[in-house]
Design goal:
The complex is a heterodimer of chains A (598) and B (191). By secondary structure, chain A is an alpha+beta fold. Helix content of chain A is 35%, strand content 22%. Chain A contains 20 helices and 26 strands. Chain B is an all-alpha fold and 191 residues long. In chain B, β1 (125-126) and β2 form a beta hairpin. The chains are: A alpha+beta (598), B mainly alpha (191).
Chain lengths: 598, 191
């Protein structure tokens, strides 16, 4: 039975040998082919594999928004697209495509026709439009596809929008092309302001993804690798967008009316030092920064320093009251002129000998009276108070390009320096410093570091800033601050220098300032900076407002130019934050004294 | 082991004594293939097994095919959903932009002004608990109105068009020598 079967298929060892030879031949063929693919033709196969379906896309990180204190956006990023074209393909249909682009995207028809027509035979890439909202760009591409007009495609192009236009534009800054090829040419490099200062936080980190596609779909289980993008962190400000808008409009109205070069307005929360508004004029629209002169594109409230003038008298008297060297009733016999060295100090109004109290010297804004009172204090002590008020030290807002201003060095401090600094000449400050200094009086003698950013954030210079880092230092006693406040209330009352700054029903404390600024040849060809600083309600202050207008023509003055803006802003915030009027005014300090009085 | 030893020795003795009997027994004990019938198996029983194996194989192949197809299908769906998500994100962003435009304080202020509204000149409140009026309410007037529209931007010097007037002698066609401001005078043209 078994023998015939064996003979038909051969002996087992013969069969084994045949199979072995067959397998060996087959494996040799495989090995040869492997050698060819891996060794000889490797590069061309890698290339073919790469082009056949491996796609790498960038996953751009979303740039963080810049929000106001209520979460309203001042700057935000949306996914935009750019439209690009291959002129070699679009050339024949240039008119038809340009028609669609002109209709749908408001682009210039003739400009587009020119771009879509090949200028030479090598150009295969042109930009048609940059930074278009994704929906619009996608629709245009779809319409073109329906009309069978080939050659136009879209690519990601992150779009930064500033929904509130120029509101806070001088603080927020803008993006542009910094000319550094390393940063790309997408026009998304931070140029100034918060966009620049907090770029590290806002920018985030781009990711990328590689995957295989077949027929437009991802191949499941195909090769893929993905690095997720890290979106930028939002930056929340202490600014109230509506207050900021109103501050800018009120300020600019006055700056234009008086044909001034620039102005700044600061609205500050008394207790926390948070800036509700930091308005500059001229303003800058981050979308079109080129419309604004170059030196006004940042925040002049921080970048430009000026001599504060009479608002400084508030600080002088607060220091004198704190050191018990003067009381509000201190009698001053004020001559019409005061000679110190070769200089003659005058008041803004002509007068003979006046019998003013210290309170009267502040209310009437007498330079001579203030200079005389300040002689009670040693230069070291006086300068120490001013330093404690924050003068000469940069604020910790975290914005770039801040000028710290300057106090004269103690070595150069003489009797004339003391007298001039006492009424606000011979030193320089920026608007935020001055607002914070006046706010010290409002805040019972405690100096609060102003802040613009919520929380704790580190800016590009490595400085940690924000509401979480606010420091509070006592400068003068609560009693001295309260006495100074009552003296400042005289300014806005009847007989004061700026009754138009008062708000009926409210107790408002303030001080005007009109200061000669040194030009290239000293005060001779200088100009004026007029200002008003104050707070309300005087017995329980909630807000401090400081307004400065530089170089007003047409007879600008602290009372006539800056005080109305102060009143408008103070009215606005009192109303907006529902601050009802507080108690009645306390008995006013006497402005004058008579020799017969005891 | 201890039990087997004596059994073997007795076995050898037995074989010597009854060789014929042993030969027959050995002959009977030789291994032969057991007929399947004796084991209770039938030739027919092989078919269901083969069918089962083939069915399993077929099911595996078909299952794999369907799984692959299903995955492709899912991949199409994923791509389509991804596309839809992108489109919806873009749409949402467009709507947010639109909302932002409507909320722009500038636009709201203009709309309010067009309705004839003015900013209050003095803050005043009604306390709801007792109906008391806080502050001194006065009718708002336009006196405190702020300028909403920005002033027209002044053109930078470089963009101003400069007109150079050159007077030409009508007979010779040559430029005349300059006479005061007539030549090189630049006048600004509005846009």
């Amino acid at each position: 039975m078994s023998r015939p079967r064996r003979s038909s298929r051969g002996e087992p060892h013969v069969r084994l040998r045949v199979a072995l030879i067959a397998v060996t031949v087959l494996l040799t063929v495989f090995a040869a082919r492997l050698g060819q693919i891996q060794g000889i033709d490797a590069a061309s196969y890698v290339e073919r594999a790469g082009t056949s379906g491996l796609v790498t896309i960038d996953l751009p990180a979303q740039r963080g928004s810049i929000l106001d204190r209520n979460g309203q956006p001042l700057a935000e990023s949306v996914s935009g697209l750019m439209l690009v074209a291959d002129p070699q393909t679009t050339g024949p249909n240039a008119e038809a495509i340009a028609q669609v682009l002109a209709d749908r995207l408001d682009l210039d028809y003739f400009d587009q026709v020119e771009r879509l027509t090949p200028s030479d035979e090598t150009t295969r890439f042109v930009y048609l439009a940059r930074k278009i909202p994704a929906t619009q760009a996608t629709r245009v591409v779809e319409v073109l596809r329906e009309k069978q007009l080939a050659g136009v495609d879209s690519r990601p192009d992150p779009l930064r929008t500033y929904p509130a236009g120029d509101v806070g534009g001088n603080l927020v800054g803008f993006l542009g092309d910094d000319g550094n090829p390393a940063n790309g040419d997408d026009g998304n490099d931070p140029m100034v302001g918060l966009e620049l200062a907090f770029d590290g936080d806002l920018a985030g980190t781009d990711g990328h993804e590689t995957y295989e596609v077949g027929g437009g779909n991802r191949i499941p289980l195909g090769d893929r690798s993905k690095v997720d993008p890290v979106d930028g962190r939002d930056l929340r400000l202490t600014i109230d967008r509506d207050v900021q808008w109103y501050a800018q409009k009120a300020l600019c109205t006055q700056v234009e009316r008086f044909d001034a070069t620039w102005g700044a307005a600061v609205v500050m929360d008394t207790e926390t030092g948070e800036l509700l508004a930091l308005a500059d004029c001229p303003t800058v629209d981050p979308v079109e920064p080129g419309q604004t002169p170059k030196d006004s594109r940042g925040s002049r409230a921080l970048a430009d320093v000026f001599e504060p003038g009479s608002v400084q008298k508030v600080l002088t008297f607060a220091g004198l009251l704190d050191a018990d060297e003067v009381t509000p009733q201190t009698r001053l016999t004020v001559p019409g002129e005061l000679e110190i060295y070769d200089r003659t100090i005058r008041d803004w109004f002509e007068h003979g000998v006046l019998r003013l109290t210290a309170a009267g010297a502040l209310a009437k804004s007498s330079n001579i009276g203030t200079a005389m009172a300040a002689e009670e204090q040693s230069p070291e002590e006086f300068r120490g108070y001013l330093e404690a008020f924050g003068l000469g030290t940069p604020t910790s807002l975290g914005l770039p390009a801040e000028s710290a201003g300057s106090l004269p060095a103690l070595a150069d401090w003489n009797r004339l320096t003391q007298a001039q600094v006492a009424f606000g000449q011979g030193l320089s400050v920026n608007a935020v410093q001055m607002a914070a200094a006046v706010n010290t009086i409002a805040n019972s003698g405690l100096h609060v570091e102003p802040s613009l950013v919520e929380g704790r954030r580190t800016n590009g210079a490595g400085l940690e800033v924000g509401t979480g880092t606010t420091s509070v230092d006592r400068v003068v006693s609560a009693e001295a601050a309260s006495e100074t406040t009552r003296m400042m209330e005289l300014v806005t009352g009847d007989g004061g220098s700026a009754p138009n700054a008062g708000i009926p029903g409210y107790r408002v404390a303030g001080k005007t300032g009109t200061a000669q600024q040194a030009g290239s040849q000293g005060y001779a060809n200088g100009y004026k900076a007029v200002s008003f600083g104050g707070f309300a309600p005087a017995d329980d202050p909630r807000f401090t407002v400081y307004v400065v207008v530089s170089d007003p023509k047409n007879g600008g003055s602290g009372a006539g130019t800056a005080a109305p803006v102060f009143r408008q802003l103070m009215t606005h915030v009192l109303q907006r934050y529902a601050v009802p009027p507080t108690g009645e005014r306390e008995a006013a300090y006497p402005l004058w004294w008579k020799p017969s009085d005891r | 082991m201890s039990q087997q030893q004596p059994a073997t020795s007795t076995g050898t003795g037995l074989r010597a004594r009854v060789p014929r009997l042993a030969e027959a027994a050995v002959e009977r004990a030789r291994l032969t293939v057991v007929p399947p019938r004796a084991l209770g198996r039938t030739q027919a029983a092989r078919t269901p097994f083969a069918v089962l194996v083939i069915a399993l194989l077929a099911a595996g192949v078909v299952g794999l095919l369907m799984f692959n197809t299903q995955m492709q299908q899912t991949s199409f769906t994923a791509t389509a959903l991804q596309r839809e998500a992108t489109a919806l994100t873009a749409q949402k962003q467009s709507l947010v932009l639109e909302l932002d435009r409507l909320r722009d304080p500038q636009r709201v202020a203009q709309a309010a002004r067009d309705l004839g509204m003015v900013a209050p000149s003095q803050p005043a409140f009604v306390r709801l608990s007792d109906g008391r009026v806080l502050g001194r309410p006065v009718p708002a007037t336009g006196a405190d109105a702020v300028q909403i529209q920005p002033a027209p931007v002044e053109k930078p010097e470089e963009l101003k068009r400069k007109t150079v007037v050159v007077q030409v002698d009508p007979e010779t066609g040559r430029p005349l020598p300059s006479r005061g401001p007539a030549r090189g005078a630049s006048t600004e043209q509005g846009d």
